[in-house]
Every structure is written in structure tokens, then in C-alpha cells.
Amino acid sequence: MSDQTKHVGFDRSIVEGPIRGAVWKLAWPTMLQNIIGGVQGIIDHTMVGNYVGYVGNAAIGVSWQIFLVVIVFISSLFTGMGILVARFAGANEPEKVNRTVYQAFLTSVMIVLLVMAPIGYAASPFLLDLVNATAEVQAEALPYLRIMFVFSFGMLMFFMLGGALRSAGDARTPLRLGIALTILNIALSVILIRGMGPIPAFGTTGAAMGTVIAGASISVYALFKLFGGGWVVQFQRGMSWRPDYVIIRQLFKFGLPTGIQGIAMNVGGVILLSFVGSLTMGAQAQAAYVVSYTQLFSFITWTSVGIMGATAAVAGQNLGAGNPDRTSRAVHMAAGFGLLLATAIGSTFLLLPTRLLGVFGMDDPIVLDLGVELLRYLALSGLFITVALAFTGGLQGTGDTKSPLYISIISQLVIPVGLCLGIQTFSTLDPADIWLAIVLGHLTRAILSVIVFKREKWRDIKVEIGSARA
Fold first, then answer.
1. How far from 443 is each of 373, 388, 420, CA to CA, in Å?
2. How do residues 279-307 score in pLDDT, each as one tens digit?
3. According to the 3-state scheme, what is the secondary structure of the chain?
4. What is the pLDDT of residue 4?
């Protein structure tokens, strides 16, 4: 049966219906998926914080900060894939959608197996030294980080599939898969972190084990579905294992700037974490930073990243369908949704800070004081980051991935790191200085993203991969 015969049709309301409904249709499942998915991280931190202590929380946070630097580069392929898929879906070209996703899958398999797993395992001790992790934090972090590097392909497959389906107009299937992933991960974390019956307590390492096992399980199911049909994106059993270099070049052309952007942002995060670790109460400050910034602030970034993903899909599809004015309206609409949500979430940071931190077992007085202080800064910073990500989604979805790269280098690396380095060089660096640097970085990113999008150079970006090979 041909690809066209089996194909599940694209949702044309994204390029033809009311723009508010088109944005919301993709945004709410994506935001909800990110929030539900983030629950697994909160569960891990909460259990580790209560069964291991704040050292375990710091170990997970440090490990994730390092892991993200690497994983973001591989995920850049999925950004390039999403740009192509959205354009081809908007133009109603299912064969090109399927070819693009398949080539992204093959390329990511090779990178993970041949590069990330072996090099990540060997380099983990050096990377932990690089962020000034204390000896006690390193002891908890090393096995966690190595497991994530070696066995994380299932999680990457989940990210790839979610991006592909969303860009093609289906945000509900990734939501259902995300719910299943989270439930499985929580069950595994409860068993593996604290132990149950004959299964010993693995502590911090158990959190990593649960994450990779859950990701692998969901990804195996997804592969069966891709080859079995019934989704808007499909793989055919006769597809060649040979790389299609025309498509791969397009994936890297659009995705590589995003990968470099992600690396720059996360390198900035690692350097900031190093500054936090260099403070007088380094371990306590890192624990406060991990819980307040990488966990609680994630409620804003999860929803904002969901807005970004939905915006990219709607923007790309409408540009592919020849509707650039709808693209512009969709981005502004998405930023408005994001601001409402960021305001609501940020208000809880101001009103209930000690209760929020208490969920993670934060009862050390120094850690608690630092965490409350940081949450006050983040309540404001959330407004800036949600606007920045909405307009970043508009730029990336239309194919302009270079501008967000330059913006991120300035706002997430040069400004916050430069400010902290300057203060440390000429005075005494305090926690509040680092918190202020985060806010100023997010403010700069928002301003520059809006300015660049409004220049509308994205209207002239072309995408093409040619016809299928015989």
C-alpha cells in the first residue's frame, strides 16, 4: 500500500482556521505534556532530597546541566527536522514529511551510538570537575551521569517523535505518550530510588535508571506504531537504511545553529553553576539553585517551551502554505498566552516560596534562605523568558535559526557570565549578583528576539529536499 494511501491527513485548520484556535490547539497539549513530563524530575528530586539529602539534589542538577550541553546538540537535528516537517505539512506533502523524519532518526542513532555514549562515559569525571562539584556531590553524580550518557537513546527518540508529530499538526499523540512515560518513570523511581522488596535502594543512581528504562520502553512502542501506520508521520518497511545526504544537509543547515545555541546557553549555565559552587556556601547554594531554578522555574520554562514548539509549528506550516501574515499574528498570539501563564506561576513564587521549597525536602536554613531569594528574582525573569521563547519559536519555525543563536550568545553567555566575572574580579561575588545576572540575561533575550522577528527577514527563507530516490 502506498504512502499516500495509508497517510493520515494533516490538520488544515492550522493554516486555514482561526489563528487563535490554531495556536491553542498545538500549545495546550504541548504545555501540558511538558508540565506532566517535568513531574518526573520533581518526583526524582523530591525522593532523592528526602532519602539521600540535598547532596543528591545537587548531584542530579549538576549532572543534568552537563548532560544538556551534549543532548541539546543532538536535539538540534530535531529542530531542523521540525522546520522541514512544518513546511512540508503546510504545503500538504506527506512523502517529504516521512522522509525527513526517517533520516533524522537514522542520523541520531549513529551519533548516539558512535559518539555520545562512549565519549560521554569516559569524560564524565572531567566534566564534573569542570563545574566545581564537591567530592560528595561527585560521588553521587558520576554513576547518574554515565547512565544518562550511555542509555539515553530512548529518551531522545521520544523527543524526536514528539517534535515530528507536533510539527505535522498532531500535538495530542505526544501528550498521550508523555503521560505514559511519566507514569512509568514515577513508578520506576519509587521502586529504584528507595528500594522495594528484593530490589535494593539505588538512591540517586536509581533516578537515572528509571529515566532511561521508561524512555526505552515508550520508544519501542513508538517504533512499532511508526511502522504500523495510523499516525500523521509514518515509516515504510521498504525505506532504505542508506543516508539521504540532501535531507541530512538540510537538517544540519537549519538545526546546527540551534545546537550551537543550546550549547552556548548550557555552557553559560554550567559556568553560572561553577560561580555558584565557588561561593562560600557552595554546596548549599548549588542545592538552592538546582531546586529553585532547574525545578521550580521549570514550571515557567516548560509552558514557555511548549508555547515555543507550538509557535514554531504554526509559523512554519503557515509559511509553507503561503500565509506569512498568519505566521506573524500567530507569534504575537502565542506570546500573549505565555505572559498570562508566566504571571500566574510567578505569583506562587512570591506568595508560597517556603512551601514550594519544602516539597523538595529543603529544610536546611541556609539553603532555604537562598532558595526564597532566588525565587523572587525568577518571578520577574519568567515574564521575559516566555516572550523570548515565543518569538524564538517564530524565528526557528520559519527557518531563521541563526538569529536566535547570536541572541543567545549575547544574552545567555556574554551578559550573565561577564557580569559575574567582573564582580568576582573586582569585588566579592554574592548569590544575589548571580540571580540578577540571570534576570538581565532573560530581559536581553526577550528584547532582541522581538526586534529581530519584527524585521521579517524570515519571509524569504526557502526549504527544499528534492524528490525521493528510486
1. 19, 8, 16
2. 877 778 888 888 898 778 988 998 898 89
3. CCHHHHCCCCCCHHHHCCHHHHHHHHHHHHHHHHHHHHHHHHHHHHHHHHHCCHHHHHHHHHHHHHHHHHHHHHHHHHHHHHHHHHHHHHCCCHHHHHHHHHHHHHHHHHHHHHHHHHHHHHHHHHHHHHCCCCHHHHHHHHHHHHHHHHHCHHHHHHHHHHHHHHHCCCCHHHHHHHHHHHHHHHHHHHHHHHCECCECCCCHHHHHHHHHHHHHHHHHHHHHHHHHCCCCCCCCCCCCCCCCHHHHHHHHHHHHHHHHHHHHHHHHHHHHHHHHHCCCCHHHHHHHHHHHHHHHCHHHHHHHHHHHHHHHHHHHHHHHCCCHHHHHHHHHHHHHHHHHHHHHHHHHHHHCHHHHHHCCCCCCHHHHHHHHHHHHHHHHHHHHHHHHHHHHHHHHHCCCCHHHHHHHHHHHHHHHHHHHHHHHHHCCCCHHHHHHHHHHHHHHHHHHHHHHHHCCHHHHCCCCCCCCCC
4. 42
Q: Evaluate if residue 5 carries a pLDDT over 50.
A: no
Euclidean distance between CA atoms 449 and 311, whole angstroms:
14
How does residue 3 score in pLDDT terms, banded at 50, 70 and 90?
Answer: very low
- Each domain of the chain, given as residue ranges in start order, spans 15-459
Q: What is the pLDDT of residue 152?
A: 84
Residues 415-419: what's their mean pLDDT?
94
15-40 burial code (b ≥16 CB/10 A, e <16):
beeebeebbbbbbbbbbbbbbbbbbb
Amino acid identity for residue 87 in this structure:
R
* Residue 8, pLDDT score: 65
Lowest mean pLDDT among 47-56, 331-340, 392-401: 47-56
State pTM to two decimals. Answer: 0.82
Whether 1 shows a pLDDT value over 60: the answer reads no
The pLDDT value recorded for residue 459 is 93
Q: Is 110 exposed, middle or buried (0-12, 13-18, 19+ CB in 10 A)?
A: exposed
